[in-house]
Amino acid sequence: MEFAFVSGDPALDLVATVESRRGAAVDLLAAPEDLERWIRACDGLPDEVAVDAASFAAALRLREAIYRLTLERLRGDRFTPAGLAVVNGAAAGPALGVELSDAGLRLSGGADAVLAQLARQGITLLADRLACLKECGRADCTRVYLDRSRGGRRTWCGMDACGNRVKAAAYRARRRAAREEPDPG
Ligand SMILES: [Zn+2]
Questions:
Q1: Residue predicted with more confidence, 183 or 37
Q2: 185 CA to middle of ligand 1, Å?
Q3: Distance (Å) from CA 141 to ligand 1 centroid
Q4: Alpha carbons 3 and 1: distance in angstroms, whole number
């Protein structure tokens, strides 16, 4: 399964590793190796990070806490203290190493630094009252994304993953309705 980085923020992309959260949820992070692959694929994180069982469990706790706070933010509710404790605790972890070389930027750090970075990014996003957070318009998707479009008019998390699927389904439904219409003659 390929990971999609279309949420506009790595913390939301982490949350989206559970698909169809209100239906038959699919968790793309089934084992520590999956998280290692996700970290390698995610921009702004080091390529080679070893994830052990403890940091894997911490990552899933962080992911679900960010999701909970994101839903609260979407609903305009107060943040639950338990969610805040998880995210703020992770954000207090070590910083990623950043080095400049002729080859460009090199990032380094362990799993705790990666989780701290994701937690800080989630905090920055959730604290920004002007950030336009939305849930994808395709009901089964449930991905929350940051809408940076002018006027906040984006409807789908991604055109390929969801927009085109919904449009194709609507087209098929129209065709079906047209066929089933009684013959005017
Ligand atoms: Zn979607």
A1: 37
A2: 43
A3: 5
A4: 7
